[in-house]
């Protein structure tokens, strides 16, 4: 697999789309799945700010705080989000409460135990969680091909661990929403 280009390179998004052929559909579905208009949003794995930008197109008054472990990614995200921090999602979350915690194409980097721990922390500090990510399929024939360590689980496992529901799926991509306002 070819190396990813730099986030500053205009071909970066094309590289992502090459690895995740349904990238735009996933992004659109994740933003559409947000269950209410959030005031405060914590984005886990903000990357270059692509998801944040789409969220602000739908909810222009939202204040987004983004976390990412890649300093090169954060450079671009600073132009979009209210605040960005160099941090791993395995680390303690910034102080909430948050209306929404959002993560697109990040959760698959965590082990099962790390995912379950993260979901417990999110539930304690937020009103809702939206996850858009790739999952494992029984036949393991999904189109998504990402570089580096990845630990995809089934969509049902992810939904169960975060007390959410699968609201969109296509090939090996899903969007899961957990609404904790009840």
Task: Describe what is shown at a glance.
This protein has 182 residues and is an alpha/beta fold. It has helices at residues 12-19, 23-32, 50-58, 71-77, 112-125, 155-161, and strands spanning 40-44, 63-68, 83-86, 98-104, 126-134, 165-170, 173-179.
Task: Give the helix tally.
Answer: 6
Shape: globular
Total strand count, please?
7
Q: Kindly identify the CATH topology.
A: Rossmann fold
Helicity range: 25-40%
CATH class: Alpha Beta
Overall mean pLDDT stands at 88
Strand order of the largest sheet: 3-2-1-4-5-7-6
Taken in chain order, the helices and strands follow as HHEHEHEEHEHEE
CATH superfamily: Vaccinia Virus protein VP39
Structure description:
The protein has a 7-stranded mixed sheet with strand order 3-2-1-4-5-7-6, sandwiched between helices. The chain starts with 11 loop residues before the first helix and ends with a strand. It is built from 6 helices and 7 strands; from the N terminus they run ααβαβαββαβαββ. It is globular, with a radius of gyration of 15 Å. Helix content is 30%, strand content 24%. The protein has a single domain (12-179), classed as Vaccinia Virus protein VP39 (Rossmann fold), CATH 3.40.50. By secondary structure, it is an alpha/beta fold.
Write the layout of secondary structure elements.
Layout: H1 12-19, H2 23-32, E1 40-44, H3 50-58, E2 63-68, H4 71-77, E3 83-86, E4 98-104, H5 112-125, E5 126-134, H6 155-161, E6 165-170, E7 173-179
Parallel strand pairs: 1-2, 1-4, 2-3, 4-5
Antiparallel strand pairs: 5-7, 6-7
């Amino acid at each position: 697999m070819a190396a990813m280009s730099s986030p500053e390179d205009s071909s970066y998004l094309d590289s992502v789309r090459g690895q995740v052929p349904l990238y735009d559909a996933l992004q659109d579905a994740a933003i559409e799945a947000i269950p209410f208009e959030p005031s405060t949003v914590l984005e886990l794995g903000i990357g270059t700010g692509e998801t944040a930008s789409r969220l602000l197109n739908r909810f222009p008054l939202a204040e987004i705080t983004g976390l990412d472990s890649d300093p090169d990614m954060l450079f671009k995200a600073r132009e979009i989000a209210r605040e960005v921090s160099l941090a791993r999602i395995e680390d303690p979350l910034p102080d909430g409460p948050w209306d929404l915690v959002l993560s697109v194409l990040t959760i698959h980097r965590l082990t099962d135990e790390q995912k379950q721990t993260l979901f417990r922390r999110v539930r304690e500090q937020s009103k809702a969680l939206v996850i858009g990510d790739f999952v494992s399929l029984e036949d393991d024939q999904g189109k998504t091909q990402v570089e580096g360590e990845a630990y995809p689980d089934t969509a049902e496992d992810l939904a169960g661990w975060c007390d959410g529901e699968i609201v969109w799926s296509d090939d090996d991509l899903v969007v899961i929403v957990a609404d904790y306002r009840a």
